[in-house]
Amino acid sequence: MSGEYKVLKDHGKQFVPNLRTQPVSAIFRGRPVISDSLTNNEIRQVSELCPSGAIDSKTGSIDLGKCVFCNECALMLPGKIRFENDYRISVNRREDLVIRPGQEGHVRLDETLIRKDVRKLFRKALKLRQVSAGGDNSCEMELNAAGNVNFDMGRYGIEFVASPRHADGIVITGPVTENMAEALDICYKAVPSPKIIILVGTDAISGGLFTGSPAVNRWFINNHDIDLYVPGNPAHPLTFINGVMDLLGIK
Length: 251
Ligand code: SF4
What we know:
Layout: H1 2-11, E1 32-34, H2 40-49, E2 62-63, H3 72-76, E3 81-83, E4 98-99, H4 116-122, E5 126-132, H5 138-146, E6 158-160, E7 169-173, H6 178-190, E8 196-200, H7 202-206, H8 219-222, E9 228-230, H9 237-248
Helix pairs in contact: 5-9
Bound molecules: iron/sulfur cluster (SF4).
């Protein structure tokens, strides 16, 4: 027994004490900051460079739902575009993922759009079924990490479950391939109402680099209301956890 105490003492506290304020690496790419002094020529250059069409060729805005966080735009225009390591970038309105030149301040959920039954029913316990709809296992691994001993989202009753019948909602990763389109719909229908839909990662939110591919079928995404968008490529566990905490009203 004393040996076990010694192991615990040596390991110290492994969990992240405050998931809201936990610092991450300075080189982590989260919320972009775009100068409002971009010239038309600079906007044209970076929009042509961007591999995923995330930069608007007229305004210079960056759409975090399309961005793959490659950093190429910041390297082309240092001093005019940079990525802060602010990981709290989840939103519940698709338009709010578009960051405009000169936009400062944090990205947050629109409280008025959060369904009352979501907070009433799921605030103390939220069980989620994860569906990898053509994902590449990157977002899936980060979601897995969200429940590990470090991030430990289970402390708030947020957990993944094996069956959609035991779930309160689904978490979708991947661009939704044709082969997964029907399975995704079946899974969603198996979740009892009321239920929520969360999209995690660029591929799920917009199709990402697979936009326009005949192998992708976005019918489900385009025909359902989405409760939470969690951007990233892949999304950071803290982006996911903080987004869900905001959705549930956990301080
Ligand atoms: S970091 Fe995002 S916006 Fe910039 S070039 Fe890469 S994909 Fe485009």
